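Justification of resources, computational component.

The compute hours requested in this renewal are based largely on the per-chain cost of generating structure records like the one below. Each record pairs the submitted sequence with a full structure-token output. That output is archived, and it is also reused by downstream analysis tasks.
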Amino acid sequence: MRVPRRRSVRVLAAGCAFLILATASGCTSKRYWGGNTSSGGQATIGLVTKTESNPYFVAMRKAAEAEANKLGAKLYALAGKFDGDNEGQVTAIENLMQRGVNTILITPSTATGAVGAIREARKRGIMVLALDSETEPKTAVDATFATDNYKAGQKQGQYLRAAAGDGQQKVLMIDGTDGSSVNTQRRTGFLNGFGIAENSPAILGHQSTNGDQNKAQQATENLLQRDDSATVVYNMNEANARGSAAALASRGLLKKVSFGTIDGGCSGVAQVAAGGYNVDVMQFPAKMARLGVDAGAEFARSGKKPSGFHDTGSEPIAAQPVPGVPTKDPAWGKQHCWSDK
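The structure output for this chain reads:
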């Protein structure tokens, strides 16, 4: 296998998504990993994540790079500028089609935002797999490798309901991106697990933050200014959790609420161990990436495609067990957490 090289080209178009890719009409810098498969067709795989900087997607990209090197596949990694950047993801897909890839792995920013571009890619014979987030319709892609996000949200809700104890609870909900399947599924699952309806008076307020830490902190501060009597705080992901925790801590409220999130990064697990978060529902982004790259290599060799939804699992990490909710302790979490380091 030849040693991969890193090259860069200057930014030529401000309207392009951040691309770790060079094309004839290139947008930013490029990197690719690996070489040709040892037999069969050439495995050339594009990975399109929601953002380039979110540690979760950094971990996913690094796992994809490692698997591509292992299998001798060529990998092009691309990303939108921010969570919800549908236009950037469409641009990325168009660039990958120009590159002639035979597989595209995408974490869709919203369920429908890139469906048109995905449809065009599949018409050209490119296999498209969703990672982490589902499309709408689900059949827009060949298959999905992701957390069952409804179940992940449900586990957070069940744990926080039990941890909060008896009595009336008041909930703050720090959501992600409106229209995202991940946001919708986790929110719905949490409500089910906690045992309240969407319009329940137990919900003091909610804000969408596009999974951005600074926006989450500001959103939480705004909600607390209106009412600081919350007993439970739901977070869609760890970026939200970092922001909302900072807002709560500045008012001396963090230790007074049952606080949960979803992701299972090593920094989140450390917060559970330190008593900052009550629960962090761990996901396995590296597993999603490996399965996607494996499927791309197999498709290049044999033309075989996976289909349907493949749940990559989730595990609540908590320092304090609660009745009726299976959890793993922070020591287990430290061994299995993902990191961008």
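Residues 164 and 316 are 16 Å apart (CA to CA). The radius of gyration is 20 Å.
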